[in-house]
Design brief:
The complex is a heterodimer of chains A (about 270) and B (about 230). Chain A is of the alpha+beta class. Chain A is built from eight helices and 14 strands. In chain A, the strands form three sheets. Chain A has a five-stranded antiparallel β-sheet. Chain A has a five-stranded antiparallel β-sheet with strand order 6-7-9-10-11. In chain A, helix 6 crosses helix 7 and helix 7 crosses helix 8. By secondary structure, chain B is of the alpha+beta class. In chain B, strands 8-1-2-9-10 form a five-stranded antiparallel β-sheet. In chain B, strands 3-4-5-6-7 form a five-stranded antiparallel β-sheet. The longest helix of chain B has 21 residues. Chain B is globular. The chains are: A alpha+beta (about 270), B alpha+beta (about 230). Chains A and B meet through helix 2 and helix 3 of A and strand 3 and helix 2 of B.
Chain lengths: ~270, ~230
């Protein structure tokens, strides 16, 4: 075997990486290879996802997001889904420029699945979180122009037997949150709301309630975040990630919880 | 400088084919069977870590017999092909036919151009989306020959005997358990020893599942399925 062949077999640790495969074979499909330019006023005309959050509860993690995408002061889309299944045991909530964010979520899904198929075993949760950090770092030139992608990553750690939540900054910095986190334009309001309502070891109903209240608070305070739309019947997306996998809280259940919440609020005013 | 001996192309191909066939005949066999909800793959494989059957994409599975490193290379190439295609177009655009063609091209080129041919045969199986549509089973040989098979397929050392057995015993509309028991009986056709769950690697493409239809049947579940009717 030549040196090069040895290299290919042993030194190329990224054999199982889909991103590295793209870099080698079709670099034009990789997001954000553009050089950084000063912030462009056009950027606000690109649809942006607004509020996503993740909360730890007894069985794992609950992830939720509102359904609105905004373009400056306009509504770009009313029914966007911001929580994506990464694999059976993890999910990604996207906030920031919607186009690049969705592309990154799709690339990340493929990356995780590709690794699992090539290696025969899935990546650890830690490994997935780090891989996502590297992909966010790839987006830094675009982020400097204002096309920011800052997802929340959450999943169930099989080794530790608990749900875990990771947040990121635009440079790919990765920080683990022990209780909850919310990201996006209404993120701060949702976090403030969760700070008051979060308790350790909540059951699913309690976690769902705290989550929906946080999204409602964010929708009230932040113009970008969409509240429950009773006319069209649009309610937040809520997903759960537990030992038994990535699940969805049915629309019906979310709608009922939302309506109960609104009635209760009305009673207070 | 000594002149290289002249070998007629015909002789060379014959020798290569014989070499590849001998390599494949040494290995154990694999059968694929269509059943009610999809396609079942059964391999005689005592190892639980080195797989002969694997997932390629949502509805596509791969099985290889012969030399492990060679079909493993083909398998990884297939996963790359499928993921690249699915990412640049859509998941629905990844087809078993395109993949089977790629394997056929690759094996054909290796067979004619390289000194040593690959000692492998592979199956590319694609399960149909819904009842009524047809499953696809492609069988690709060491020299790039490609065949599409119906109802069942067999490859490996005792493929001919197994195929004969299945021809007589296969019927359409088998349940998973019936298909599995038939598959295991087929693998035992040429040997006296009974095969237990520890000697088998079994996976299905189950069309009733969401998105990724491939799943392995773990030894415990396998034992129950095998013992079911006894």
């Amino acid at each position: 075997m030549t040196d090069e062949q040895w290299q290919a077999v042993f030194a190329n640790y990224s054999n199982a990486s889909f991103v590295e495969l793209l870099r080698g074979t079709s670099p034009h499909l990789l997001p954000a290879l553009g050089a950084g330019a000063p912030e462009d006023p056009m950027v606000s005309a690109v649809p942006h996802g607004t509020t996503v959050l993740a909360v730890r509860y007894r069985d794992g993690v609950l992830m939720a997001g509102d359904r609105q995408a905004t373009e400056g002061f306009q509504v770009a889309h009313r029914t966007i889904d911001k929580i994506y299944k990464a694999d059976d045991l993890s999910g990604i909530g996207i906030a920031g420029a919607a186009g690049p964010s969705m592309e990154m979520a799709r690339l990340f899904q493929t990356e995780v699945e590709h690794y699992e198929k090539v290696e025969g075993d899935g990546l650890s949760l830690e490994g997935k979180a780090n891989r996502l950090a590297q992909m966010i770092r790839m987006n830094l030139p675009a982020a400097m122009q204002g096309l920011i992608v800052i997802p929340i990553f959450a999943g169930f750690d099989e080794k530790a037997g608990v749900g875990r939540i990771f947040k990121y900054d635009i440079t790919g910095g990765r920080y683990e949150e022990a209780e909850y986190f919310a990201q996006g334009s209404g993120g701060k309001d949702a976090r403030d709301s969760l700070k008051k309502r979060y308790r350790k070891d909540m059951n699913k109903e309690e976690a769902l309630r705290a989550t929906l209240e946080a999204l409602l608070d964010a929708a009230e305070e932040d113009i970008g975040t969409g509240g429950p739309d009773l006319i069209r019947g649009i309610f937040p997306t809520v997903k759960t990630i537990t030992r038994s996998g990535f699940g969805e809280v049915p629309d019906d259940e979310v709608r009922r919880a939302c309506e109960a919440l609104l009635v209760e609020r009305k009673g207070r005013l | 400088m000594p002149l290289p001996y002249y070998v007629s192309p015909e002789q060379m191909m014959k020798d290569k084919a014989e070499y590849a066939r001998k390599g494949i005949a040494r290995g154990k066999s694999i059968v694929a069977l269509e059943y009610l909800d999809g396609v079942l793959l059964v391999a005689e494989n005592p190892s639980t870590l080195l797989h002969k059957i694997s997932e390629i994409y949502d509805r596509i599975a791969f099985a290889g017999v012969g030399k492990y490193n060679e079909f493993e290379n083909l398998r990884v190439a297939g996963v790359r092909h499928a993921d690249l295609k699915g990412y640049s177009y859509s998941r629905g655009d990844v087809t078993g036919k395109a993949l089977a063609n790629a394997y056929s091209q690759a094996l054909g080129n290796i067979f004619t151009q390289d000194i040593k041919p690959f000692e492998v045969e592979v199956l590319v199986v694609e399960v149909a989306e819904a009842n009524g549509a047809k499953n696809e089973i492609f069988h690709i040989l060491y020299d790039g020959t490609i065949e599409d098979e119906h109802n069942y397929a067999a490859m490996g050392g005792q493929a001919d005997e197994i195929r004969r057995f299945l021809k007589d015993n296969y019927r359409e509309g088998l349940s998973l358990q019936e298909a599995l028991q038939l598959g295991v009986r087929a693998l035992m056709v040429t040997q006296n020893k009974a095969l237990t769950e520890r000697d088998l690697e079994v996976a299905v493409l189950d069309r009733t599942k969401e998105r990724r239809r491939f799943r392995r049947i773990p030894p415990e579940a396998l034992r129950q399925l095998l013992e079911g009717s006894k």
